[in-house]
Amino acid sequence: MKYDRIVVGPLEVNCYLVYDEDSKEGVIIDPGGDPQVIKKRVESLGMKPVAIVNTHTHVDHIGANADMKEAYPDAELMLPEKDLPLFKSPRNPMLVMMCRAKESPEPDRLLKEGDEISFGKESLKVIETPGHTIGSICLYSEDAGLLFTGDTLFAGSIGRTDLPFSSERDLFTSVPKKIFVLPEEVKVLPGHGPSSTVGSEKRFNPFFSGSLIL
Containing domain of residue 114, as a range? Predict the structure, then answer.
């Protein structure tokens, strides 16, 4: 499994292009903006997108959904099933306008705990991690040792929980029970900022260090 990171949009979201090195089939994770930049990178990699995946449905992570779907009509648009209330909230179209993004089309597939997203010989497993939003998910490759965490967990920080459809209590349950149980060498690839590892976040993330998960 190979991946490439592109920082897109006014809120500097990490959009990831994850693909099978042999077949070049792959997924676009969190296309938040700058669709021309994303498309140019897809072309340079020779990647064949089979899925467009949102880890959650805040506008900074879905802002280029429409452009990606237009560019790659055979790629399935996938988002978390439990995030539908946020996705369909009247607030989202307003925020899309504010960010000068296009409103997202309806999803082709709704994702839930344990689902697999397959591309070539590779796959990503869906892990539900509510907190930043009610339906936030992470995407995990056990074989590659990669975890795409969206805005659930950052290097040395966590996603905001003071927004509509978010829950601090849920986030502080999700991270220890769903992420910190993974092997410590797993690479954490967040929705904003630099990468980290599960082990590093267990030990040094100030929101969790010293808690019962250690």
Answer: 2-204
Give the list of residues 6+ apart from residue 209 with CB closer than 8 angstroms, or none: 202, 203
Q: What is the pLDDT of residue 210?
A: 56
Find the distance separating the first CA and the last CA of the chain, reported in whole Å.
30
In this structure, what CATH number is given to the domain that contains residue 181? Answer: 3.60.15.10
Of the candidates 198, 195, 162, the residue with the CA atom closest to the CA atom of residue 178: 198
Per-residue tokens: 145: 């040792």
Tell me the backbone φ, ψ of residue 124, rounded to 5 degrees.
-125, 135
Residue 50 one-letter amino acid: V
The per-residue pLDDT for range 5-25, each reduced to its tens digit, is 999 988 899 999 999 999 999
Task: Quick: pLDDT tens for 47-94.
Answer: 999 999 999 999 899 999 999 999 999 999 999 999 999 998 866 654
Residue 213 maps to a domain: no
User: Residue for token digits 């967040």?
Assistant: 190
Rounded CA-CA distance 23/89 in Å is 38
Query: What Cα–Cα distance (Å) separates residue 157 from each residue in 31, 40, 92?
Result: 22, 31, 25
- Number of domains making up the chain: 1
Residue 119: inside a domain, yes or no? Answer: yes
Q: Classify 14 as helix, strand or coil.
A: strand
d(CA 58, CA 163) in angstroms, rounded, equals 10
Q: Is 212 a domain residue?
A: no
